[in-house]
Amino acid sequence: MDQTNKTSVTNKNPKTLFDPTPFAFSHATSAEGKGQYVFISGQSGGEDLKHSLSEDFRTQVKYSLKNLETVLAEYGAGVAEVLKITILIVDHDQEKLKIWTEEMHNTWKKNTFPASTLIPVPKLALDHMLIEVDAIAFIKK
């Protein structure tokens, strides 16, 4: 990727607040300069063009993040350009949070996480969907 298109993203984790990086998010992110905001609709854990959904939560998490990366790539961007994500998890519990956090660390390898909100929900748009992730990214011009 052309380095001139890289986003100048700043992550802020005030020292007077707890360190959120072990939990795979930042308290705030911002972008500077001229650029383009990209609003990405909720990405599920659908594995193919038929939107096949595994019954395994971790598998759906991996595919939701992979699908997010696929959309970002359409703009010549990657996860480093994501400023904010919202995660919807069906029947959220501590085990699902652990899996989500592990997969975030696998995807955001430099631990510069976006601002994040996780919302437990009883159900999503389609039967068998266990997770949905939407995002806001900023791509510097």
From TrEMBL:
<dbReference type="GO" id="GO:0019239">
    <property type="term" value="F:deaminase activity"/>
</dbReference>
<dbReference type="InterPro" id="IPR035959">
    <property type="entry name" value="RutC-like_sf"/>
</dbReference>
<comment type="similarity">
    <text>Belongs to the RutC family.</text>
</comment>
<dbReference type="Pfam" id="PF01042">
    <property type="entry name" value="Ribonuc_L-PSP"/>
</dbReference>
<protein>
    <submittedName>
        <fullName>RidA family protein</fullName>
    </submittedName>
</protein>
<dbReference type="GO" id="GO:0005829">
    <property type="term" value="C:cytosol"/>
</dbReference>
<dbReference type="InterPro" id="IPR006175">
    <property type="entry name" value="YjgF/YER057c/UK114"/>
</dbReference>
